[in-house]
Structure formats: structure tokens, C-alpha cells
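Q: Here's a chain of 342 amino acids. Please give me its 3D structure as C-alpha cells.
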Amino acid sequence: METHQDMNNDKSPIHVWAKEIATQQNFSDPKLIYQGGHYAKEDVRNVIYEGLYQGKLAVLKVYDDPRPSDEPISQKRYLEDNASVILTAPEVYAYEIVTPNKGWFIMEKLPESGSFFTTPLSENDRKEFLNIFVEYRKNFPRKATREILLVENLPAHEFCAFRIGRWLEFVTKQELKSIFKDEQPLLDRNVFIPLYAKAMEVLRLEFSKREMIWCHGHFKPQEIYKVSDDKYYVTDFAHTRLYPEGYEFGFIIWADYLMSADWSESYESWKRGVRVWFDALRPVADELGIARYDDLIRASMIERVLGTILADVHASDIPNKNKIHRIEYLQKLLRELINHEQ
């Protein structure tokens, strides 16, 4: 999860490191414009500064993420292979990958005349965004641009189980803290565990029939920068890897709707936003030649709902009463997806 936070906290290790890199690389007049968190706000995983590099406006991105990333290399390879005339990415000027989880790069600053898409998307913006998504899928490399990791060699259904198992492990650690403090855990095991077991049955059945595909991994409205009707940039290549076919459909719904929905609405009104996306993605699946869309979107959304409950809600720093309310809606949606009621 990415969060725009208080950007005056420039004494944390990642900010100090960023300023050291700026000095070493003659990246002048650095100004902090963004920092991204990993679930909780205080857990900063990357920072972006704007400034001047070799006489050009540029940005410096520094990352230290618990997840492995070769972001600057992935971005460079995309630019080398990309054949789209309307969708591109910022040019990479300099970079260093220090560890599999840590590195930095200096890249082209996006034109001032443009703007990122914002969520939730309007109907017109949704159509435009999906046109760009199709453009991306038709031009993104089909084969991996780096050595495949062991986990990426798993069959798609086992990869899903691995990811969700990590989220479940995270919740287990959180529960231990709650129990130690004599607090009530957020998830009612008598409600959630039966849902979890049935959800995993659906995921194993559907994704055992799907392939792993090479993806940008983070293709969402907030990563698409529009300059004009025939010029767009895609950003944030930190998550490029193999994912199950359909992963991106669920991710888009999560990014645009689940993370920005009005949770004060009635459940039926809230759920309508999910249904709108189901309908909007159907012609995209047809254009990309994806078979059995209804089965795929159901499974992809189940994966996203499980992730939202276990990671995004459970690990967030919102008040517990808000967490409980969101979990209630998400569990109800999960039950309906499992039972083919969506």
C-alpha cells in the first residue's frame, strides 16, 4: 500500500541515505515530493526527490523494501522493448542495486503539463485507463527480463497459496501481540476460517487452469501519468514479476475501488462499485483473448479480498472500529463470491 505522508520527517535512515546519494551523484537542489509506506505509515519503503541532474530536471528514487526488486533494470528493459507510440516510461539516467531489496535510480522527471489518474475513476476515466491497460498488455514483454525466482516457478494456484500464506502469517504475528496485551483479535476465527478454507478451494481449482504471466505487477490508476490523449507514462516498476493470469484484473479493482471506496455506504451500495468493475473488465478480457472471464474474475477477486482483509485492513493504522466494519463488508463479499452470488 502506498501512502502520502508527512514529508518533513527527513531524519529517518532512508532520507539520510537519499541525501548522501544526491551529493555523490551531483543531484542538486533535492526536494522531497513523495514517500511510500508498507501498510503502516511509519514503515517508509521508498522516497522520491526532485532536482537537477546533468542540467536536466530529474527525480531520484531510493528504495529499501522488504520485497525483492530490480526496479531500475526492469524499467530500462521495458523502455528497450516497448513498441507503443502512446505509452512509455521515464528514461533511467543512473542507478545502483545495492541488495535484492535496496537500491536507487535517477530518472527523467515527468512533464509538468500532465497528471496522474486519481481514484476512484469516473466512468470516462475508467474507459480511458482500460484502453491504456490494453495498450500496455499488448506491448509488455511476454518473457521475463531477468532470472526467474524459485517461487515464480510455482504453478499459479500454488503461487496464490504462497502469497496468501504469507499474509496469514503476518496476521498470526499481529494476533500474538493482541493476545499478549489481553485484547480481542480482529478476526473471528469461527467466521473467517471456514471462509478462508472455501476461498482457497476456489483459488486452487481456478488457478490450476491458468498460467503465470510476466506483468508490470502494479498497473493501477495512480501509476499512469497522462500528458495528452496520445502520450502516457507508466511508472513504478518495483513489482515486475510473474503473476497468475487474472492477477492484474483483481489488482486494478483493489487499487481503484477497495482502497478508496466509501465504506460509510450501505453494503449493497458499496458492493455496486465492484460490480461496475466486473462489467468494465469483460470487454478487456475479450480483446486480450482471455478465456472463461467469469470464473477468472471471481477467483481473482477472491484473492484480492483475502489480501485486503489479512494485509491492507489488518495491518493498517486506522482505528479498530473502522477495521471491524471493513472486515464485515469484505467477509460478506467473500462469501458471495465463493457462493457465486456476485
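Q: Can you summarize the key feature?
A: Confidence is low (pLDDT under 50) at residues 1-8.
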